[in-house]
Design brief:
This protein is α/β, with parallel strands linked by helices. It is built from 11 helices and 10 strands. It is elongated and about 75 Å long.
Length: 278
């Protein structure tokens, strides 16, 4: 194997999803750095591989990175794997990749499964533009704040969620995006009890509330992007907005006009700022 750090994607459920190239790399590298050595050993045993494995995860110290760089300096190849899917996608590895690159060694992707992309491909939601958010904050206040920041996002949004928190998260999403916002839930992808459901947020919340099985396993939530806001502002509304803007803060003026016209507050606010040259 050529010297370098191989970033190897592993199955998210179905072990047959390990690519032939990934199998070859894992069989022939000098060392495998794994998020969870026990989990990785089970994968290796399934394929009859005996490559040596060491631990590397988010809590590893600087010395762990130095040891892996020493392996590369000695012309030895290293593969990095996480528990499932593509490393670094809501998984550890960022610091290791940077350190290896900064030390002058190659980092080589070995692409494969990724729960976010797999879910997007079967969601039925627009795929031409999307944002990956990973896990939302655990605390309700921080979670609501982050969702509020995403409220006007036009792209499809992708989130990972734990089964014990999925119902609470759907409630928070309904409060911010509206109960009728189209969404999708992909659960246990590539596994025996895989389910994919596209519906309104309200319907998904009803589903996970009524069926405890929908609150088990690995979950990906996808939310359709916000519909384009009407940008055409009539001359009468523009005049009123500007007049209020001379007497009130721009946000307050936009809020008042939005309440009486139904136009989006964010659109009116941006319009007013543009008129003021801010």
């Amino acid at each position: 194997m050529d010297t370098g750090l191989y970033i190897v994607a592993t199955p998210i459920g179905n072990l047959q999803d390990l690519s032939m190239r990934a199998l070859e790399v894992l069989a022939h590298v000098d060392l495998i750095a794994a998020e969870d050595t026990r989990h990785t050993q089970r994968l290796l045993q399934h394929y009859g591989l005996a490559s040596p494995v060491v631990a590397y995860h988010d809590h590893s110290d600087k010395r762990a990175i130095e040891r892996l760089c020493e392996h590369l300096a000695n012309k030895r190849s290293v593969a990095f794997v996480t528990d499932a899917g593509t490393p670094l996608i809501s998984d550890p590895g960022y610091r290791l990749v940077r350190a290896v690159q900064d030390a002058g060694f190659a980092t080589i992707p070995v692409p494969g499964p990724c729960a976010a992309i797999a879910a997007l491909s079967v969601s039925g939601l627009p795929t031409d533009s999307f944002v990956f958010e990973g896990f939302l904050p655990a605390k309700s206040g921080a979670r609501a704040k982050r969702l509020g920041e995403l409220c006007d996002t036009a792209a499809t949004m992708i989130f990972y969620e734990s089964p014990r928190r999925v119902r609470e998260t759907l409630e928070a999403m309904m409060a911010v995006f509206g109960a009728e916002r189209e969404a999708a839930m992909a659960r246990e992808l590539t596994k025996a009890f895989e389910t994919v459901k596209r519906a309104s947020l309200q319907s998904l919340h009803t589903l996970v509330t009524a069926d405890p099985n929908q609150r088990k396993g690995e979950i990906v939530l996808l939310i359709s992007g916000a519909r384009p806001s009407p940008t055409a502002i009539s001359s009468d509304i523009a005049t009123l907005l500007e007049r209020l803007g001379r007497e009130l803060p721009a946000k307050k003026a936009a809020a008042i006009v939005s309440e009486h016209t139904g136009l989006r507050k964010s659109v009116l606010y941006e319009f007013l700022l543009a008129r003021k040259g801010l």
